């Protein structure tokens, strides 16, 4: 039986937005495609909560998943996203296999004893960077460059070698929100570029990517060392 104070999830959401001035919070998250994602609205547990609802807006198409004490889960998304409870009674939205097309605005509203809270989460998919290494000549010196272009979020670039080096790191944001990271190392005259390895890690990948630097100046070639 429906309780009189809440005919359904949609009506409750509408009612809340006009009657209460809810506390608002803004967050964002970038997630790996193929992995699972758990989104937490608040830290309230079902001891304190009456109701929690997620409105998911993907390119203007909206659906709702909601759960409340004594009510069946309301789900108009029907695409595998589910509400789950932790053992200590917190609620979270579980996306079993995160896809590119799951990126969008996730707005959750939690009603708890006496008040409510609204959280807006901008969810986007990680984008793997294009990686390359090259050897440049600059001011008569050899400079090894390791580049990770167009990654979202920014990749981490580091080096491994048997000699000491100083790193010049630059990170620039592209117009699509991705980042291009370049790390540069000047090679001492006595060493071979073979002894230098660039290591790139990024959220899209399960493991680090390892590249050697070309022995002579070239344009970027990708060479997996392992
Ligand atoms: C999300 O929660 C599930 C349990 O529902 C857990 O198995 C999984 O590891 C969690 N995923 C992440 C990315 O934390
Ligand atoms: C929940 O509490 C933990 C620990 O206090 C905090 O780090 C986390 O940000 C909180 N999460 C939310 C959704 O408020
Ligand atoms: C989570 O716990 C609440 C309170 O016990 C319950 O009403 C709800 O159905 C549970 N949801 C799931 C998905 O287990
Ligand atoms: C790195 O930079 C520091 C400070 O500029 C300098 O003292 C040091 O010699 C440099 N090391 C190498 C290997 O170039």
UniProtKB/TrEMBL annotation:
This chain's protein is named Ig-like domain-containing protein
Q: Name one GO molecular function term.
A: signaling receptor activity
**Top-rank taxon:** Eukaryota
Residues annotated as domain Ig-like: 7-124, 129-202
- Supply the Pfam families for this chain: C2-set_3 (PF22705), V-set (PF07686)
Alphabetical GO biological process terms:
regulation of neuroinflammatory response
Q: Check the record and name the PROSITE patterns matching this protein.
A: IG_LIKE
Which N-terminal residues, if any, form the signal peptide? 1-23
């Amino acid at each position: 039986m429906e309780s009189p104070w809440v005919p359904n999830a949609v009506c409750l959401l509408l009612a809340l937005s006009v009657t209460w001035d809810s506390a608002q919070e803004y967050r964002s998250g970038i997630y790996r495609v193929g992995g699972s994602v758990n989104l937490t609205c608040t830290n309230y547990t079902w001891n304190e909560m009456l109701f929690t609802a997620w409105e998911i807006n993907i390119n203007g198409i909206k659906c709702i998943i909601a759960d409340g004490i004594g009510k069946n889960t309301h789900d108009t998304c029907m695409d595998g996203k589910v509400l789950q409870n932790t053992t200590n009674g917190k609620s979270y939205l579980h996306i079993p296999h995160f896809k590119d097309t799951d990126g969008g605005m996730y707005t959750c509203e939690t009603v708890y004893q006496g008040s409510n809270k609204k959280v807006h989460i901008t969810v986007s998919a990680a984008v793997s960077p294009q990686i390359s290494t090259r050897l440049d000549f600059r001011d008569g010196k050899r400079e090894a460059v390791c580049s990770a272009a167009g990654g979202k979020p920014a990749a981490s670039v580091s080096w491994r070698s048997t000699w000491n080096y100083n790193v010049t790191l630059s990170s620039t944001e592209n117009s699509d929100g991705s980042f291009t990271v370049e790390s540069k190392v000047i090679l001492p005259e006595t060493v071979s570029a073979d002894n230098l390895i660039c290591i790139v890690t990024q959220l899209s990948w399960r493991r680090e990517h390892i590249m050697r630097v070309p022995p002579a100046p070239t344009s970027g070639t990708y060479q997996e060392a392992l």
